[in-house]
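Comment thread on ticket #2218

A.B. wrote:
> Attaching the input chain for the structure job we discussed in standup.
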Amino acid sequence: MRHACLSAVLILWAGIAAAFEVEDHRHYPGTGDAVLRIVSTADLDVFEPYLLAFQSARPALSIDYTVVSSADLHRAIRAGARFDLALSSAMDLQFQLANDGLARAYRSSATEALPDWARWRDLIFAFTTEPAVVVISTERFAGLTLPATRQELTAILRDHPDRFRGAVGTYDVRESGLGYLFATQEARSTDAYWRLSEVMGRLDPQLYCCSGQMIDDVTEGRLALAYNVLGSYAADRLARDSGGRVQILRMQDFANVMLRTALVPAAADAPEAAGAFIDMLITLGLRDAPQDWPLPPLREGGDMPASGFGPIRLGPALMVYLDPLNRRAFLTEWDNAMEQP
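C.D. wrote:
> Ran it. Output below, let me know if you need it in another format.
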């Protein structure tokens, strides 16, 4: 079984003994000495417009932007890395940081405008709602009825093993914080999750750390489908490289929708600038229309199926599967389903 994660360099940040993998990094110099250091799971392809918009309003401020996996972001903040702002798609890991006293409180008129389900104790703030989707290769699915539910997807994979063997991509939930969040929430919400996992496990699935590479591999023909990738990344890729080779499927039986969240780490050196960046993200998140921003707005409805929609709520329930015993039990069951001979 292939483990397909972006290769990255190991760095030590500000004297932290534990290294973490950097997927991308960019420095945006300002005209002054102040620096806002951001660690994030959002790829630069989709997040750079937000950085440039903020810097245009504060040209004296330099921005240092580091992209890491959600698990590495969690480890870095827990180890005391000196970042001013942490932006992550793994809201359970973000919640754990806040709950464990590793986030600094922040309040403004923008944060107070958030609905209760999109913030927690002035410590963690949501600024997007993003569904998990299935991205498929139209060539690999030629002649097949496109699935609308997990049961239908399971049946297609089961009935056409030669077509899909080695060509199904999903997260390695042992390494991906977002993948683990999606998997645990889906397992709680639909019985179809484990049956689909078992069928995938018979097809030599390809395991990934991140949505972006899964989508790349579908686009380039290495995968027939990528399961549970971020809809915002898929839509962005489709807009830049349509060609009819890739299609997005939204499962109608249940929509896994995560909140992308921000927090100010307790060790932040520039909390004022971090708070101002959060205000900008919230203001854009509460906009009424998508407009030209790559990430979707923060809304509880949108075009998701009414019966299955629900952003995963910020709250103590997110901690259930982070308990070591619960995590070990879940990963054991996942291993049994996905790691089949």
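A.B. wrote:
> Thanks. Noting for the ticket: Residues 41 and 82 are 16 Å apart (CA to CA).
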